[in-house]
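Fold this sequence, please.
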Amino acid sequence: MIRHWSLALLLFAASVQAADFKTPVLLTSGGQSADPQMIKTLLTRENIPFTYEPLATSAMLAGQGALIIVLGGSSKGLGAAKVSAEQETARITELLKSAAEQKITVLAVHVGGKNRRGALSDEFNKLGANMADEIVVVVGGDDDGLFKGIAESRKVPYSSAAKIADLGGILRAKFAPAQPTQE
């Protein structure tokens, strides 16, 4: 029996295939919350090339190396974008299906904590997590294990950060260009 959670996490991480992330990145919202703004700041700080489109469509995937979808619904954000929850669900579904067809790697990110959980948000959260190649969350947003459970059942990588600022290093590690080996 595994006695330490860190060993269990290490074994879980070894059992899933790491996704292949390339740049440039198309960054979008999955629920029209303001949370993608935080990821936009981190991508800028880490010098990761990206385009931010809150209502990204599959036509915008051309030339992109990866898609980051920041999950979490906002009724205020949906209203400001003039889209219904149903229209947002249809957009996200079409975008993620197109990314899969084009073999564009998808990173689902949840940074909104408990504020981006609940009936409205969780529909978007489940949709994005169930179609992503990898899931990253800020710890407080996965207290019930929703995202981790989806990752385990789908056998996709899952990682978490104690706070939003810690995501910068995670993003850097995923999107940094490979360094040439010295001979």
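Residues 25 and 58 are 13 Å apart (CA to CA). Strands lie at 25-30, 50-52, 66-71, 105-110, 134-138, 158-161.
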